[in-house]
Amino acid sequence: MDEMDLILKRHKKRCQGEKESKKISNIFSKILLSIIFILLSCIYINLKENNLQTYKKVVLEDNLSFTKINNLVQKTFGNIMTNLKTNEAVEVNNEINLKERVPYQEGYQIKTTKDAPIEALKSGILVYLGEKENYGQTAIIQGVDGIDIWYGNITNVSLKLYDYVEENTIIASAASDVTYEVYYQNESKITYEEAFKKVANQ
After folding, report:
1. How many Å separate Cα 28 from the centre of its chain?
2. Is the dihedral of CA 172, 173, 175, 180 positive or negative?
3. How far is it, in rounded angstroms, from Cα 164 to Cα 187?
4. What pLDDT is stored for residue 153 in this prediction?
5. Global pTM?
6. CATH of the domain at 108
7. Angle at which helices 66-77 and 3-47 cross, to 10°
8. 38-61 burial, b for 16+ CB within 10 Å, e for fewer?
9. Is the pLDDT at 90 greater than 80, yes or no?
10. Angle subtended at Cα 34 by Cα 32 and Cα 39, rounded to the nearest 5 degrees
C-alpha cells in the first residue's frame, strides 16, 4: 500500500468519525445562527420604513457574505461554527500532487492524480456544492478574505453546506487526473496571483 492510499484511508476514516461527533454541534450552530439572523432582521426592518427595501436588496438580491457574518458572530459569541481542522490533519506536498496549473475556462486546470487529496487553499465557508458545467462536481468556499474559490472535478467531499473549514484541511479527492480552480472577488473573476497577492498585502 503506497503513501497516497494511506493518506486517503486516514482521510475517509477521520471524516466518518467526525460526522457523528459533529452532527449535533452542526445542528445547534445552524439553529443558533438562524435565530440570531431572524431576530436581527426583525429589529432592523422595524427601525425605519425604508429599511425593508434595503433588507430585500441586500439579502434577496445581492451576494450575501457568509464570511463577514461568521467573523461578526465569532467576535460577539466566540467560535460556534464547525471547525473541520484537527490535530491529525494530513500535510500534503502540493508540489507532488499539483504538477501543473494552466488556464481553463474562467480559471485553471491542474494536473494531478486520480483520488489525490484536495486541500482548502484558504479558510472559509462552503457556500456551494453541486454540479457546474465544464467543471463537474464543484465546491465553492468563500474565504475569510472575501475571495471565493471553486474546486472543480472533485469527489468524496467531506463537507456539508455552510461548514467552516481551515486552510490546508483536506476537503475532497480528485475525480480524475485533472481538477479545476476558479477565483472570484465581488462577483468578478480574478487570477491566482491576484487572489494570493491580496492576502499577502492584508
Report:
1. 20
2. positive
3. 21
4. 97
5. 0.58
6. 2.70.70.10
7. 80
8. eeeeeeeeeeeeeeeeeeeeeeee
9. no
10. 95
Distance linking the first and last C-alpha atoms of the chain: 43
Residue 7 C-alpha cell reads as 493518506
- What three-state secondary structure class fits 76? helix
Look-up: residue for cell 496549473?
101
HEC letters along 5-20: HHHHHHHHHHHHHHHH
Question: 126, 161 in Cβ contact below 8 A?
Answer: yes
Q: Which of 32, 38, 124 is nearest to 76 (CA)?
A: 32
CB 137 within 8 A of CB 197: no
Q: β-strands 107-111, 147-152: how paired?
A: unpaired
Number of domains in the chain: 1
For residue 59, give the DSSP letter.
I
The per-residue pLDDT for range 125-155, each reduced to its tens digit, is 999 999 999 999 999 999 988 899 999 999 9
Cell of 184: 472570484
- The CB density around residue 176, as the number of other CB atoms within 10 Å, is 14
**What distance in Å separates the CA atoms of residue 122 and residue 124, rounded to the nearest whole number?**
6
